[in-house]
Sequence to fold (122 residues):
Amino acid sequence: MTQAFAGATGQEFAVYYAKDTVGRGRNKTELAGQNARDAWDTPIKSLAEDLSGRLALVIGMPIFVVDNIAVELGISNGSGGTLVIGLSPVRKGRRYAISAEVDLPLYTSPDPETDFRHRLVI
Fold:
């Protein structure tokens, strides 16, 4: 569906990858090579509330909130919005998702000085 949206809107279709790590503290190591590819290809386990290791995104695509993150701010399950910016460094030909900005009409920033009252960084 994301690829179809990209084609219909003339936008770039891109896949973003997670930076997966194992261990903690000084023993924390980023997965690389076949280990990273295996992690990216692992099916999502919905009962474990896992996220996909790869995510296709297109600027302007519709998004939906899938959890009650901050109901009092209008960031709740089922809220719809639009992806406006994706921030990602490219390394070895892959984009790594760091953050994204979305416009959520039900959310209003508590900062009265902001130019984008419904924009949220995730």
Summary: The chain has one domain: 2-121.
